[in-house]
Amino acid sequence: MGLYEVIIILVILVPVFLVIGIFIYNTLIKLRNRSDNAWAQVDVQLRRRYDLIPNLVETVKGYAKHEREVFQRVTEARSKAINAGTVKEQGQAENILSGALKSLFAVVENYPELKANQNFLMLQEELAGTEGKIAYARQFYNDIVMKFNMKQQMFPSNIIANMFKFKEKEYFEIEEPVSREPVQVKF
Questions:
Q1: CATH number at residue 73
Q2: Strand residue runs (E) in the chain
Q3: Are 172 and 138 contacting, i.e. CB atoms less than 8 angstroms apart?
Q4: Is 4 among the domain residues?
Q5: Prior bond to 156 cis, omega within 30?
Q6: Distance CA 25, CA 160 (A)
Q7: Domain that residue 103 falls in
Q8: Exposure of 144 by Cβ count < 10 A (0-12 exposed, 13-18 middle, 19+ buried)?
């Protein structure tokens, strides 16, 4: 093989590898931006939840004046969740907030007139809808993060990812111990 053939092969292969590299780089950028956008959507739903909680607490306070400890836990948990910095911290804060909200709804069970209050029912329904939206946004975010992280780990895109110092993203995980327990059936 002569110099002429080597030059022709290089002239063909270099652009092919360049195009493949550009395609991989653009795919990584697209996935990173989609994961950032998906996190923003999770954040929108979490903010909506945080805005509903004070209204819910105030409504319950009117009926259950002696349940200060529960109200304080919900307020503190909301504050921690709002101020969480990383995805992992957000997940931990959401665990605490979910537990505090469960305590709040347990208090509600002791007040039948509160359970019948239209304002409370509307807030409870809106919060339940928001919880569903949070679950969907969290699942979508985690799906995009999985694709982004996988792309960084797979050959040959891992070479481009390392060259341009792409960092893997964290999953947004909320521990739900109740959902991991076996279902109890009693007759």
A1: 1.20.1440.20
A2: none
A3: yes
A4: no
A5: yes
A6: 6
A7: 21-171
A8: buried
CB 131 within 8 A of CB 42: no
pLDDT in tens, the chain (187 residues): 789 999 999 999 999 999 999 999 999 999 999 999 999 999 999 999 999 999 999 888 888 877 888 899 999 999 999 999 999 999 999 999 999 999 898 888 888 888 888 888 899 899 999 999 999 999 999 999 999 999 999 999 999 999 999 999 999 988 765 444 543 434 3
In a domain, 25, yes or no: yes
Do residues 35 and 149 touch, judged by C-beta distance below 8 A?
no
52 and 123 in contact (C-beta within 8 Å)?
Answer: yes
In the numeric block, which tokens belong to residue 79? 């504050």
Nearest in space to 87 (alpha carbons), one of 171, 174, 176, 175: 171
Residues written for the chain: 187
Q: CA nearest 155: which of 20, 2, 39?
A: 20
Structural domain count, the chain: 1
Q: For residue 165, what are the contacts with CB-CB under 8 A and spacing of at least 6?
A: none
Euclidean distance between CA atoms 58 and 66, whole angstroms: 13
Is position 14 within any domain? no
In three-state secondary structure terms, 141 is helix
Query: Which tokens hold the place of 159?
Result: 């070479």
- Residue 72 forms part of a structural domain: yes
